[in-house]
Specification:
This protein has 298 residues and is an alpha/beta fold. The protein has two domains: 169 residues, 3-Layer(aba) Sandwich (Rossmann fold); 120 residues, N-(1-d-carboxylethyl)-l-norvaline Dehydrogenase, domain 2 (Orthogonal Bundle). The protein is 42% helix and 20% strand. Helix 1 links the parallel strand 1 and strand 2. The model has no long low-confidence stretch (mean pLDDT 94). It binds pantoate (PAF). Pantoate binds next to helix 5.
Amino acid sequence: MTRWVVVGTGALGSHWAAALSRAGEDVQLYVRDRQHKQLDITTSVHEQISHSSLPVCQTAAAAGKDAVWLVFVKAWQLEPLLLQLVDEGLPQQAQLIVSHNGMGAAEELIQEHPDWQVFDLVTTHGAWRQDRYHSILAGLGHSWLGARHAAAQPQWFTTLAAAFPPLTWTDDITLRRWHKLAINCAINPLATLAQSSNGVLRSDSARTKIRAVCEEIAKVNLALDANELEAQVHEVIRATAGNRCSMLQDITAGRRTEIDYLNGFICRQGVEKQIVTRTNCELADQIRVLEASANPQL
Ligand code: PAF
């Protein structure tokens, strides 16, 4: 049987951990506070509440060399986490499923470990945390998994897909990540600056900015089509009109945002490729100002 180690008890991580445990899988939680041997988490889907009591993984080495790591940390937390796992004896051929908003996180570190098997998980599930150990799945979405560097579908994929459907394997996860990146670059900073739920972006002024964000992203990555990106952004705005996006939740809680891996990433790509990405750069700057005023200690 595969051993699954879920990092963090954030909104999404809790649901994957609980789903795997309900499927009878061997699941451990990797958390900051490792005083306890066992952690109780609660997950709710459509008002159906379930409780899981899961063992806490004490070190990366103790998880075993065949463990599959499900890493649900914010983009900026990925590098320090991986460094810590390496320090704790993460096996050389570790299998890591990574899921966060944005691009470019821990890229150099991952390149320095060519034996790691890295998989990206892109999901449209809408989840939030009612309290530290209680996650609510507000909107059931779809998830896609694929290898960062071309690799065959691993054997454990069917178990994962059966535990938390719908999950589809894709040989082109990079394209999916770029589409999700465009959605987050358009929605997150604009809804955050408006301090409102995503539905606020149905205005004409927001439309103009969304168009500009998508056009710049399609110039940075020529495999993308600005019209398609824009249509997807508006579809997500419709579907999540009542939600407060993750960036606004981060700002409200005084946490660091993922801006450096969203519009900040596009801005850096623009500089590198000598392409003008003014709207993305401006949005990144505005969010950084807001972030600093929300929590001067960041
Ligand atoms: O980051 C988020 O909040 C979500 O990815 C999305 C899709 C923008 C909905 O709020």
